[in-house]
Every structure is written in structure tokens, then in C-alpha cells.
Specification:
With 145 residues, this protein is α/β, with parallel strands linked by helices. The protein has two domains: 50 residues, Roll (2,3-Dihydroxybiphenyl 1,2-Dioxygenase, domain 1); 75 residues, 2,3-Dihydroxybiphenyl 1,2-Dioxygenase, domain 1. Helix content is 19%, strand content 33%. The chain has three helices and eight strands; from the N terminus they run βαββββαβββα.
């Protein structure tokens, strides 16, 4: 067996309406369905890439450096300008911005969704990894936006 691609991510959420609105209205995912306690989204690459399932309760505070999911990465463009534009939109929407990074092949913006899940919104800014896969291991540098 060989994995061909990452298919989708499923998140349990505290408030489906709030979270679905964030992923649709703020991040621009196309909502495929919302019914009862779930919402399904796709960027158009495949049948679905994100599924939200409402479980209620309160967000669980994330423990730093604990086992489990660290973040989910979403490609938002192919230039630093795409990241700058996203930053302005997210700031205007009141989204919690927790950092930026220059990873060499990508420029990234890190944000929290309404339940506190960390998301990396990135632009591919170099194809160096195609010729040298180790390029993705370049030291992280600050990214000024």
C-alpha cells in the first residue's frame, strides 16, 4: 500500500454554526452540505477536504508540546503577496493571528479557528523541494508582513 494524498480532515467542534461560518466565510472553503450536526467543505480538489461534527461543550485548552494534532496546513496561494492579503482580511475579521514564518519553500501565517485549532495558511514561494526534497527542512526564519 502507498498513500496517494491526504484526503480530508475531520474536526469535532463545539458550535457547528460558528465553526462552519468561519471555514466558509472567513477562510473561503466551499460548503458542500450542512445538516443537523455536521458540515462538509471542499476547495474543489476532491469530494471533501474538511468535515466538521458538532459535539458541543467547551474548547479544550491546547497543551504546548503534547502528543496530538499540532496544526492543519492550507495552501492559500503562490506568493508572499497572497499571504499579506490574507493577513489583512483575517485581521479585519478579528481572527486570532499567532505568528508568521519563512520556511524557505513556503511563507506561512498561523491562526486559530474559533475552537482554538491552529491553522497554517501558506503560499508556495519556491519549487526547490522538487529537485531537493531536503529543502523543506530549511531553518525557519522570521517573516515580516
Amino acid at each position: 500500500m502507498q498513500i496517494k494524498e491526504l484526503g480530508h480532515v475531520v474536526l469535532y467542534v463545539t458550535d457547528l454554526a460558528r465553526m462552519a461560518d468561519f471555514y466558509r466565510n472567513t477562510l473561503g472553503f466551499r460548503q458542500i452540505a450542512r445538516d443537523g450536526g455536521f458540515a462538509v467543505f471542499s476547495s474543489g480538489r476532491t469530494h471533501h477536504e474538511l468535515l466538521l461534527i458538532e459535539v458541543g461543550g467547551n474548547p479544550v485548552p491546547k497543551k504546548h508540546l503534547a502528543p496530538g494534532l499540532y496544526h492543519i496546513g492550507f495552501k492559500i496561494g503562490d506568493s508572499t503577496e497572497d499571504v499579506k492579503k490574507a493577513l489583512k482580511e483575517l485581521e479585519a475579521a478579528g481572527v486570532t493571528i499567532i505568528g508568521t514564518a519563512d520556511h524557505g519553500v513556503t511563507h506561512s501565517l498561523y491562526v486559530l479557528d474559533p475552537d482554538g485549532n491552529e491553522l497554517e495558511l501558506y503560499a508556495d514561494v519556491s519549487d526547490a523541494w522538487k529537485d531537493d526534497p531536503a529543502a523543506i527542512m530549511s531553518p525557519t526564519k522570521p517573516l515580516e508582513l
